[in-house]
Structure formats: structure tokens, C-alpha cells
Amino acid sequence: MINNLFLNIDAGTIDWSRAQFALTAIYHWLFVPLTLGLAVIMGIVETKYYRTKDEFWKTAAKFWQKLFGVNFAMGVATGIILEFEFGTNWSNYSWFVGDIFGAPLAIEGIVAFFMESTFVAVMFFGWKKVSPGFHLASTWLTGIGATISAWWILVANAWMQYPVGCEFNPDTMRNEMVSFAEVALSPFAIDKFCHTVISSWIIGAIFCVAVCCWYLMKNRDTKLATESMKIGVWVGLVAALLAGATGHKSAQSVGEVQPMKLAAMEALYNGGTDQGLTAIAWVNPFCQPDYAKEESAPLKLEIPYALSFMATNDIHGYVPGINDILNGYTKPDGTVEPSIDEKIARGKKAIEALSIYRQAKFNSSDDGSTAAYQLGILKENMKYFGYGYIKDKNDIVPYIPINFWAFRIMVGLGCVFILYFLVMLLLIYDIPFLSVFTRRLLASVGLLPETMADAPRRLTGLPSWHYWTAIILVPLAYIASECGWLVAEFGRQPWTIQDMLPTWAAVSDLNAGSVALTFFLFLILFTTMLAVEISILLKQIQKGPEL
Amino acid sequence: MTYEFLQHYWCFIVSLLGAILVFLLFVQGANSVASSLGGTEEGKRLVYNSTGRKWEFTFTTLVTFGGAFFASFPLFYSTSFGGAYWLWMLILFTFVLQAVSYEFQNKIGNFLGPKTFQFFLTLNGIVGPLLLGGAVATFFEGSNFIIEKNNLVDLEALTPIISRWANAAHGLDALLNPWVLVFGFAVVFLARVLGILYVMNNVNDEDIRSRGRARLIGAAVPFVILFVAYLVHLLLKDGFAVDEFGRIYMEPNKYLNNFISMWYLLVVLLIGIILVLYGIAMEIVNGKSSNCKSLGIWPAGIGTVLTVLALLLCSAWNNTAYYPSTADLQSSLTIENSCSSEFTLTTMFYVSLLVPFVLAYIVYAWRAIDAKKLDKDEIRNDHAY
Questions:
Q1: What Cα–Cα distance (Å) separates residue A203 from each residue in A79, A345, A481, B174, B333?
Q2: Is A99–B369 a contact, with Cβ atoms under 8 angstroms apart?
Q3: Where are the alpha helices (DSSP H) in chain B?
Q4: A74 near B CB under 8 A
Q5: Which of chain B's residues have a Cβ under 8 Å away from the Cβ of A84?
Q6: Which residue of chain A comes nearest to B151, CA vs CA?
Q7: Interface pTM, i.e. ipTM
Q8: Which of A258, A343, B29, B347 is deepest in the core (most CB within 10 A)?
Q9: Helix H segments across A162-289?
Q10: Contacts of B81 in chain A (CB under 8 A)
């Protein structure tokens, strides 16, 4: 073929393209959760001002909005790169599924971005220009715009994990949308949206509580700190509990449609019924385990039946392991899941049928029977089309250590956040019995002075560890959040679209050097800008609210 | 709604977004002359704060333009963005710099200093319009790519890629075409004209207005020369036509023929050009009176949208290949061979009905913010960049 003359691709292009997309997504995800989380905090604070007309709340709202603004710009800046990288680095992907995938991105622009960009300007510059009601609405609409934006981009992402509502068209050589409702309201998308947005609220809440704790530790701006902290703790606790529930639902979705991801998250080499959830095990973080030979990960400590329950809502449920998926298995309902080798063979058959179909279609001497016959073969094997590009069955096993450890860090930290917010709530409020019990418990283990064990609620003058805990939780919250994305994205490798298109069939015709260069340009740019942002945020916090 | 209607409809919507984007480049244009327009440090800050209330619209329109192109013409998205990699990456790079520059430049804790971010704004103000203009010019001048859909079933290839760029420059090769540069610089100076007109309208400062009038001539003259040169070239050049079987061929004076066949686009183009010139002239001639409001941005802005809209539609409608290939003529993209399925275009048609509602709230919010013109008191005493 003529264009093979211009072939630029090597394995480095694929790896650098993946690295660049991962870099952009990871950086983008440093800023977006805080935007989504702070939007809730500042919305509540300004609502308090609107209802009470107390100038204190106006000052507090302006303070949180100022921090929001510094972070917001970086979210916008990194977001634009992500959208265009689908085209620049994944051009084959953009054609192969652009008919479906482009729509959510366009809707995101029309519905969400304009809302965000319009009302964020009113929020910042409109305090003296519009009525308090209009301003409050603008503040909430800024957050709602950001949340709607999250909805559509997560619809797009969920579709990559669980492609629905589409059909392959052999004449146009692409997948085409046949049901917008199935794409936009995919259960996978709903689970992903709920879990992702709610976990973002946790970051907003932890950030808010940490800033408040810093003021309390310095014994300054105590009213702003105590009042904002109450809001932060409530938002954080509710979000952390909901994140647990939505996380369970997400895990079930993954178990249903991405069993390999679940097996990698659990380092489950050989599955079965009554599976326990691995609490901890020794999975070497630096090399892929020999899942074909090992029975299970060494030093495994598990919670009985919990994995079966997590994946199927039934403690006796069947969960396939990596080897089961590779070699084929029979589901509890009797259906047989073919081995990967068989899927590869059928995928190649589909691609070959498509090739012959197209030759016959454009060959005037064919009476149509060859094309019709090949089309039948294609449809019969279309489910495994993407496997036709797989060379070796082991290529479909994602890197287990990252999935295993990222999942544990995310869930473990999620539990820490629930506990933290619960303790904070009991310290802030006088809840009968529980608050006293908590204070005495903390005092008995030396975490609270004895003199404060029976003292009425108060947030100032606590031991400094108390404040430092909140501050340390900020980076931990980001780590938990990024770990969530690592599980979601590493777990589906090598697929850009699950079972449909592997990364090496999705990439653009670029040489590795070009992509490597842009990778480092963005790395330097984003890192520098992140450093500036952190510096500005710290100075703004140090400066405090302008009274 | 027929499939053909939907293809033309989405071509119109994408072209309209592109036209609005070019108008909104007034943000970049004003930033590129902020120092000379502002005069003093405080004046410069007024300029940045004036454009700083609108930069999000330019940014959002660029993103929506990309998203709409992706949804309606995915083969363009995959071919142009994946192929002209360096051209698009440089555009994105400068827009990323711009996005953070407003918020960061004057904040305490900015260890890079305000000058760094002001330099970024200037860089984006020149390079952004130049490269975006260059990208638009390739719709008429052609790009160096090849498309072969059968690659997808070539299991022997390392990667089964459909669209390939036929040289190693990946988009920067477009800048070797002098006509691409002529159009690109025409957009740079147009953005400056619009930026100056916008600031004169938006900022309540007589010094800036009087400096604006002087700078306006300096930007308008090269813009008119470059634009007229390109327009004449366009009307006289061979264009990329499509026959009834979908084959691409070169047709002499194709774009002139398009304007004659689609006389309504010619009317739109002429009205647009007249409005742009009127907007510039009214500011230069009438603006000398200090009592006179600076309203030139409105006719010039509307004129820009109409002119760019007519040019973009001329590149795609009337059996024209809107993204022609100079490497393989038959790889050229037309609205028929590069669009999404009928189902997707129909779905997106209903989504596009939300656009008037979106425009309504933007206008409402924009009017609320701009009811009082920006002045020095506001940036001293209120939230400001």
C-alpha cells in the first residue's frame, strides 16, 4: 500500500502516546476534583450569606472562591489538551469510534463549558454588579457546569470501558451509534459518574478542613475556620460514605463487564465461587507475577467471601481469575466464555472476512454473493473483532502490581477518610454519648489531653497532631483519587475500547521522537505551573480572608 | 431531515463556531498589543482585566469547535489532528499558557513574576491567531495526507492506521506555503483590530481610547492589504471539486464559481467585509470626539463572523473538498465522505437546538457584567487579575 512508504510507527510511539495521555490525565485530575469539591463548599457558604445577610459569610465565600479560581485555571488549561489528544495521538481511535465518542465531547462543550465559563465570570467579577440572588445562582451554576462537564466526559470514558449502543458498519469501516440513550445513560457511566464526582467532594472537604486546621493551629481567623470546618466535615463524611457505596456498585459493574480488570485488582490468578477479598498479599510492585504457575499471591490475607459479594452481591458468587479468563470458563448460568486463543482466532476471522467483503464490494465482477457471505462471517465473529489485533493471549493481562496496589491504597485511604470525618464530627458536635465516648477514647490513648476528655466541644487549642492530621490528609486524598484512575485505566489495558480496539490499533501515525518531545514539553509546563499554583495557593491561605 | 441536509447543517454549525472563534480572537489581539495600548503599567493591567473577563469564551469556543468537529466530521478530526500534529500542538501549547496567565500573573506567590505571564499572553496573542489562521488556510490550500481505510484490515502492518501524514513536518509544512502565511498574518492583524476595538469599547479610559485609535490604523492597514491579497488569490486559484461519483478533481476558479453559484454566500461575504471596514472607519473618523461611544467592535465583530462564515462554507458546500489532500487527491475530505452517521448527526441536531438558549444566557450574563465599563477604580478596589 502506498502509504506504507510513510510508516513512522514503532512500539515507542504507542508507549509515548500512552505516557503523554496518562501524564495529561493525571495532571488534569489534580485540579478537577478540587474544583468539583470546592464548588460545593463555596456554594454552601454563599447560600449561608444569602440567607443570613451576615457579612462574615460573604467574606468566607470570597475567600473560598479565590482559592477556587487559582485552581480552576489549571483545570481548564489541562482539560483542553485532553480533548484534542484524542485526535492528535489517537487518530485511528478517533475515526473508528468518533461517530459515538465525539457526541459526548461536543455536548460537554455546548451544555457544560459555556455554563461554567459564563457564570464563573459573574461569580468573580459580579459581586457589585448583579443582585445577591443572581450571584448565588452564578456560583452554584459554575459548580453545576463543572459537574455536568464531568458527566459527559465520564459518559465518554465509560463507553470506552463498556461500549454499548453501537454497531460496526463495514462500508464506512467504523462503529456507529444506534442508541444515544444507551450511550448517555449506560449503567457503567452512572456508576462511574457517581463514584468519581462524590470522591471529588472528599478532596474538596479535606482541603477545606486542612486550611481551617492550619488557621486553628496558628490561632487566627478562628471564626472562618470553625464555621467552614463544620461544612467541610459534613460534606466530607457524607461524600466518604457515599463513595464507599458507589465504589461497591462500580466494582460490581467491573466484575460484570471487565472481569480481567477485577482479577488484576485482586491478583486473583485462579477464581471460583466463595472468593475472599484480599486484604493484603505480597505482590511485587516492580514485576508482573507468574500468574500461570502460581496458585495465588504469597502471604495472602483475605476477608472470606467478600470478593464474591463485592463482585456479584452474593457471598457464594463466581469470580473468574486471570487463568480462567485466559483459558476459558463456564459461568454459573451455564454459558461458556471462550478462551483468549479462541477469541483471537475469531477476531482474525472477522478481520479477514471484512477484508474480503470490501474487496468483493468494490469489485464489479462480484454478484454480491461473496460480499453477503463474508458479511455473515463478520457479524458472527464481530464480538471478538478487537482480539484479531492481539498477537499473544498474555498481552490482554494488564500490569497486575499497579492495579493491585492502587486499588488497596484507594480503598484503604477511603476507610481512613470515613473514620477521620466521623471523629471530627463527634469532636465538633455534642452528640449524646458518642462525642464524650470519642473524647475519652482519644484521651485514654494519649491523643487528647485528659483535661479535654470531658470538656465541651471546641476546636481551638487541640494538640497539634490533630491539625497536622488534616493537613497530611490532603496529599493522601490526591493519592487515593489518582489511584482510582490508575485502577480504571491500567486495568483495561491493552484496550482503548474494551474488546474492540487495542492501543496499538488506535494510535496516530507519528514517530516516537515527536511524541516524546511533546511529552517532555508538557511535563515541564505542567510541573512548573503546578509549582506556581501551589505557591500561590499557600500564599493566599497565608494571607487569609480579606476582612 | 435528509442525510444530505444534516451534513450541510453540521457544516454550517461548525463553520459558525469557527467564525465566532475568529471573532473571539479579539482577546488574543488585544493581549498582543497590551503594552502599547495600555501605555502605563496600570493601563496594561486594564487591558488584561478587560480581556480577562472574556478569555474563557474564546477558550470554550475553541473546545466546542473541536468537539463539534469531532462529533460531526470525525475523519477530519482524526486526519488533521493526528497528521498536522505539530501545528495543533503549538496552538494548544500557547492556549494552555494563556489559560493560567490571567489568574497567576499578579498573585502573591507567583515566583515566576508577572512579566513571565504577560509574555505568555503576548505569545498566545500572536502565535495563536497566526497558527489558527494557517490551519483555516489549509482548507483552501490543501494538506499533505493520505487516507486508506483498508489499512484497518492489514494485519501484517505493525499498526493498522487509516490516516497518515506524507511528510515528517507534521503540519509545520503548511507554513512553507506563502499563502498560508498571508492568511495567517491577516488573522493576526484582524485579531488586533478587533482587540483594539473591544478594549476601546470595554474600558472607560480616555488615554487608552486615544492610543487605541492610533494603533487601530497600524493594525487595520496590514490587515486589509493581506486580506484583499488572499481574497484575490482565492478567487483566482484552482479549487478542489467533487464530481457526482465522489471523485476529486481540480476545477479552475472553483471558489469564485462557488460564490457565483451560492450568491447568498457572496452577499454574506460582502456584507461582512463592509461591516468590518465600517467598524474600523467609524472608530477612526468619529472616535475623535470624546463624547462619542466606541461602538466599532459591534459592526466589525458581526462583520468578522459573517466573512469567516462565508469563507468556510465556500470551502465545503457546492461539491467542494473542504480538507483537500496535496499528497493524494482522492484522499481529500468532503462533507459527504468524512461525516458522522445519519443517526449521530440527527441526535446532535437536537442537541444543537440548545444553542440559542446557551447564547441567551451568555448575552444576559455578559450584559450584566459589562453594564458598567471597566475603569481603574474597579481594578484597584475589586477582584482583578
A1: 19, 46, 8, 45, 46
A2: no
A3: 3-24, 26-32, 34-38, 41-52, 55-72, 74-76, 82-83, 85-105, 114-141, 178-202, 206-236, 254-261, 263-286, 297-316, 342-352, 355-370, 376-381
A4: yes
A5: 66, 81, 88, 92
A6: A1
A7: 0.92
A8: B29
A9: 180-184, 187-218, 222-257, 259-266
A10: 84, 86-88, 91, 94
- Flag whether pLDDT at A429 surpasses 90: no
Among candidate residues A20, A67, A273, the one with its CA nearest the CA of residue B93: A20
**In percent, how much of chain A has pLDDT > 70?**
96
Residues of chain A contacting B161 with CB distance shorter than 8 Å:
9, 91-92, 507-509
Asked if B183 and B136 touch (Cβ cutoff 8 Å), the reply is: yes
d(CA B197, CA A406): 53
Residue A447 burial class via C-beta count within 10 angstroms: exposed 0-12, middle 13-18, buried 19 and up = middle
Interface touch A100/B344, C-beta < 8 Å: yes
The beta-carbon neighbor of A113 closest among B60, B100, B165 is: B60
- Residue B198 is classified by DSSP as H
Closest-CA distance, A229 to chain B, in angstroms, reads 25
Answer yes or no: pTM beyond 0.90.
yes
Query: Measured between alpha carbons, how far is A15 from A21 in angstroms, rounded to an integer?
Result: 10
Nearest CA in chain A to B340: A99
Candidate from A138, A177, A540 with C-beta closest to B343: A177
d(CA B320, CA A349): 38
Whether the CB-CB separation of B209 and B375 falls below 8 Å is answered with no
Residue A547 has pLDDT above 60, yes or no: no
Number of domains making up chain B: 1
CA distance A216 to chain B (A): 22
Among all residues of chain A, which has the CA nearest to that of B98? Answer: A77
C-alpha cell at B159: 499498526
Residue B118: domain span: 3-381
Inspect the interface and report whether the beta carbons of A536 and B109 lie closer than 8 Å. Answer: yes
Q: Which cell is A322 given?
A: 486471570
Q: Which residues contact B282 (CB under 8 A, 6 or more apart)?
A: B295, B296, B299
d(CA A193, CA A190): 5
Q: d(Cα A377, Cα B135) in Å, to the nearest integer?
A: 43
- Give the Cβ contact number of residue B108 at 10 Å: 11
How big is chain A, counted in residues? 547
Which residues of B are less than 8 Å from A508 in CB distance? 82-83, 85, 161, 163
C-alpha distance across the termini of chain A, in Å? 71
Residues of chain B contacting residue A109, judged by C-beta atoms under 8 Å apart:
60, 63-64, 66-68
Least confident of A9-18, A169-178, A450-459, B29-38: A450-459
Q: What are the residue ranges spanned by the domains of chain A?
A: 9-258+399-490+492-540, 264-337, 340-394
> Which contiguous run of DSSP H or E holds residue A116?
helix A114-125
Contact B382 A118 (CB under 8 A): no
Taking alpha carbons only, the member of B32, B10, B47 closest to residue B187 is: B32
Span B187-236, pLDDT tens digits: 999 999 999 999 999 999 989 999 999 999 999 999 999 999 999 999 99
Task: For cell 465570570, name the residue.
Answer: A121
Half-sphere exposure of B315 (CA within 13 A, CB side): 24
Return the pLDDT at B368.
Answer: 86
- With CB atoms and an 8 Å threshold, state whether B162 touches A92: yes
Measured between alpha carbons, how far is A322 from A398 in angstroms, rounded to an integer? 10
Residue pairs spanning A and B at CB distance below 8 A: 319
Asked if A88 lies within 8 A of B89 by C-beta distance, the reply is yes
For residue B376, count other CB atoms closer than 10 A to its CB: 15
